[in-house]
Amino acid sequence: MATKEKLSHQQQLDAGKYVRYTPEQVEALERVYSECPKPSSLRRQQLIRECPILSNIEPKQIKVWFQNRRCREKQRKEASRLQTVNRKLTAMNKLLMEENDRLQKQVSRLVYENGCMRNQLHTPSVATTDTSCESVVTSSQHLNQLNPPSQHPHRDANSPAGLLAIAEETLAEFLSKATGTAVEWVQMVGMKPGPDSIGIIAVSHNCSGVAARACGLVGLEPTKVAEILKDRLSWYRDCRSVDVLSIIPTGNGGTIELIYMQTYAPTTLASARDFWTLRYTTGLEDGSLVVCERSLTPSTGGPTGPPAQNFLRAEMLPSGYLIRPCEGGGSMIHIVDHVDLDAWRVPEVLRPLYESPKILAQKMTIAALRHIRQIALESGGEIPYGGGRQPAVLRTFSQRLSRGFNDAVNGFADDGWSVLNSDGGEDVVISINSSPNKLVGSVFPTSNPFFSTSGGILCAKASMLLQNVPPGLLVRFLREHRSEWADCGVDAYSAASLRSGPYAVPGLRPNTGFMGSQIMLPLANTLENEEFLEVMRLEGHGFGHDDMVLPRDLYMLQLCSGLDESSLGACAQLVFAPIDESFSDDAPLLPSGFRVIPLDSKTDNSGGNRTLDLASSLEVRSESGGRATRAVSDSSSPSSCSNVRSVLTIAFQFSYESNMCDNVAAMARQYVRSVVASVQRVAMAISPSRIGAQIEPRPFPGASPEAHTLAQWIHRSYRFHTGADLISALDSQGSDSVLKQLWHHSDAIVCCSLKAAPVFTFANQAGLDMLETTLIALQDISLEKILDEDGRKALCAEFQKIMQQGFASLPGGVCMSSMGRPVSYDLAVAWKVLNDDNSPHCLAFMFQNWSFV
């Protein structure tokens, strides 16, 4: 009988799993769910006690309800995500179909032109008289763009009607480039279309000037997209100012704007450009929104633009944005940038900067599309706050850093800059600004106490040409190995400008580097990690110098971009400014840094055109082993990198008091020259293979007596513990020969200290190649950073054996170079290095048969 009652009660409980909840009960449960989607057992019991309407429901049933509710919420989010992806795929499919139609039209036109050309070659008499062939018209397009015919010669281009006629012509030409075949577009390498990609990016190589085009999808409405794109100062980093001098409404609901824009020069070796343009904003019948723009020149007619000193007038050919609404929200964007930058007015070696459509695409076209996508994600709440700050605030910091660096590089007179007399060398230019508050978006607030007295800003800058040095790799090394080139006393002097009161000018301490380590604290990054903002803390700087005491820790706000070596035409940049620990939103910034811009190698120029060649005596390092080898390759190979060149611009800014201007100038000039020398050394260390030349391995560092002694200890300890010779017995009695053979050993040999946090103290040539570093920067690398988790576990397991027996063999695995590249090795041998007193001095490791993965 008792069994039947128990079974009946269990059946009632099972049936209760499917109980129907009243609306009042559901409402009570939903209130709790909004506060806590996963309540604990105690919370569920408390809920039953506090809500009488839930008293007839078992706690287990409440638990099941919350489980089902979380499952429904998860399914709802997944369904929403899939709907979003489906809308993106539908829009991207439509975009690809349109692009396919455009390409088919372009192919048909090229086939037709090819047939006409054949007819002209076979019948030359007909070709000289027949002008009705369409190919004659299209083949003269280049000449028409260079010397456009004067259309409507009798119209008054200064009147609203004349300006509207120019605007309509601009609209037609822009649409023919954005969706038609007026320009032959070639898709950029590595830019694959997809729902999550940046878009379809293309450039043109056969038109006047340089041109780039992009098509993409964003989650903003067309009017918002147009508003963002028209605000060039917010996303175009090379834009110095945009002044709308006149706004004229049109009868069709659009507007015509007369705009004067100034842009920065990318390097100290060229002049800045400005533009005088007409911008036309209007809507199309299909609901699309168009913003098109072109320069006003004597051939187009229209008002004459304002004159400006220190600027060269460039021309913007019909360009703009076609913004179409998508079903379900968002927009489909077509961007066309087409400019003529007068490349012939810059030194020949720098002309690729002004003739490369890839550089234009990276700086303008792709930058605009990325900025819109970033804003769309921020508007949707998909970008997390960095350091407790809103994304817009962090974006403002990035803009201020970039803008301050551009101001320093260009040094415009109307900003208050003037050039100091040189000391006889032309390598470093010194400029001063005694009125820093004249700078647009001043780097120092007017309330800054340092400038309440007489003083100003001093900038030391230089530019040089690099060869065989990938920009992204160089900037990454400069970022991660600051001790390789920086002086902590100079950094401390820069940080002192944030405080009021005088500060002594430091003397440079050669080859001292930092007293401590550097820690990166990330703040924000863009969608594809092509740019990131971070705070760098330089630890352990406390020491005295002359009459000053440097602070213990220094802080730098740092902007880094272009580290992706696969991005063609991308500019790599490292800009930083000292900040204090408070780091307020309106903190004063005085940016300094490096900018490396690649130069397209269109021709195989001789070495006579180089302003500086850092790769004339570099070693060849194979990817398979990293060791220096002798190699001869066909220079015509597509993979040849012997002509890969880039221009490096360095600019450092310092504050000064008026009575210390000369001292600060001397210090800055000497410091920049030391940085240039360090960059040369770094470039020689990280440069990839130089093809087509036989280059000897770098010499071993045989000048230090300590190095000879350490080499003897390493060799003797290995033979003592293992019974085998590490190097050849030939001439092994001489210390010079031991160090030389150890330096050129085929396997990577490294030594690390016997401390709680082991750091590397020595490496032979193969070891430096494997770690992708130099002897000076080696001390900044810890053993824990190089070994992966399996390697650390294997070392910990064998450490006691190493200390007792003297050596141990570690299984093969993968370690990481200082540049973050994985390195595989077949076997690692670790042994205890003994000094002359047979006391442990350090640990040595030999990585056998290593190679980059």
TrEMBL record:
Residues 14-77 bind DNA. Keywords: Coiled coil, DNA-binding, Homeobox, Nucleus, Transcription, Transcription regulation. It is found in: Nucleus. CDD domains: bZIP (cd14686), homeodomain (cd00086), START_ArGLABRA2_like (cd08875). Its main location: nucleus. Residues 86-113 form a coiled coil. Residues 12-76 form the Homeobox domain. SUPFAM superfamilies: Bet v1-like, Homeodomain-like. InterPro entries: HD, HD-Zip_III, Homeodomain-like_sf, MEKHLA, START-like_dom_sf, START_lipid-bd_dom. One of its GO terms (molecular function) is DNA binding. GO terms for cellular component: nucleus. It holds the Pfam family START. Residues 156-356 form the START domain. Probable transcription factor. Belongs to the HD-ZIP homeobox family. Class III subfamily. This is Homeobox-leucine zipper protein HOX32. The lineage of its organism: Eukaryota, Viridiplantae, Streptophyta, Embryophyta, Tracheophyta.
